[in-house]
Specification:
Strand 3 and strand 4 form a beta hairpin. Helices cover 42% and strands 4% of the residues. With 321 residues, the chain is mainly alpha-helical. Bound molecules: zinc ion.
């Protein structure tokens, strides 16, 4: 047996708690939590890591769950549930309920928590969270926290756009019905198709029916045709979810894959029926929609990268529920 996995048990670390503590947020990155803990105790993050590793390292990667628990005074199990990167260090891991919890790895990404939720819980300017692909809108504060919102000030206010906010509910419902793996694969394909359908050429704005206000202080004021920016991602979210719903549906998906023009027309008519009237023409014109579907992972339903700890061996292998 290798002794390397037990190395952290013998590493010297802190022997007593710091004067002040703070509670970790769900799925917070270790770095984000340590910065907040350091700020609460009026020391730098580097000094805290030095304390946690007894001067052995300046890397957060070498900080142990036991050391953070001692220094913060927070129970190890609470830290293991909240901080994905330290979770597997818990000494009683089999008793930790893992299924459905967010993994600290691709395809998940790190983005700031909703700025209004953060303001109610802490004095910190931001809390960084591991996000799955469906974590896009804070339902409580109606802010876009999805792709493109890499800074709290970029979180687009969606209070005037209930259809965009509701798309988050529809997205989560799809995951409850079909599982993460299937929905994420279909969602990526749907996003690619919608980008293709709405693109109007280099330097020309995308065809978008929603007029979302830019966040205060947002860099580019003349809304460029850039699908990576948070305003664009929020504005197209309902239609991408709509197309995802069709692609995961065992009734409608075969029509999109079919070689028959009549079958494809049935899929197109259903897609059009579910779109806002301003978008009807988009679904009417482009045959590329079906080419993208047939060449996408949707046609194979294979996604080897889970976003949460799987609850069954079948899901661990990327199978649908
Ligand atoms: Zn919020």
């Amino acid at each position: 047996m290798s002794v390397a996995p037990l190395d952290h048990l013998f590493r010297p670390g802190p022997r007593r708690a710091l004067p002040r503590t703070c509670r970790p947020s769900q799925d917070e990155t270790t770095g984000s939590y340590l910065l907040r803990l350091a700020a609460a105790n009026r020391i730098t993050g580097a000094d805290l890591v030095d304390y946690l590793t007894a001067g052995a390292s300046q890397s957060i990667a070498n900080v142990s769950l036991a050391a953070v628990s001692t220094a913060s005074g927070q129970p190890p199990v609470a830290l293991a549930y909240a901080l994905p990167e330290l979770r597997t260090q818990h000494t009683d891991l089999p008793r930790v309920a893992l299924p459905g919890r967010t993994l600290p790895a691709k395809p998940n990404t790190v983005r700031p928590a909703c700025r209004r939720c953060t303001a109610t819980r802490t004095t910190a300017e931001r809390i960084d969270i591991w996000r799955r692909h469906e974590h896009n809108i804070c339902q409580r504060h109606r802010l876009w926290i999805g792709p493109g919102a890499g800074h709290p000030r970029d979180q687009v206010d969606l209070a005037a756009h209930p259809d965009v906010v509701h798309a988050q509910v529809r997205h989560r419902r799809l995951i409850r019905l079909h599982g993460h793996t299937i929905v994420h694969t279909a969602y990526r394909t749907a996003g690619e198709i919608w980008e293709m359908l709405t693109h109007r050429g280099w330097g020309v704005p995308y065809a978008l029916a929603r007029d979302l206000h830019l966040p205060h202080g947002f860099g580019h004021q003349n809304w460029p045709a850039d699908p990576r920016d948070p305003v664009h991602r929020a504005a197209v979210y309902p239609e991408v979810v709509t197309l995802t719903e069709l692609l995961v549906c065992t009734h409608w998906r075969p029509f999109a894959m079919s070689a028959s023009a009549a079958d494809r027309d049935r899929f197109r008519a259903e897609f059009q029926r579910r779109l806002p009237p301003a978008y009807h023409d988009l679904a009417n014109t482009d045959l590329q929609l079906f080419t993208i579907v047939r060449h996408s992972p949707v046609a194979q339903w294979h996604d080897p990268q889970p976003e949460t700890y799987p609850s069954t061996p079948a899901q661990a292998q990327g199978a649908d529920r």
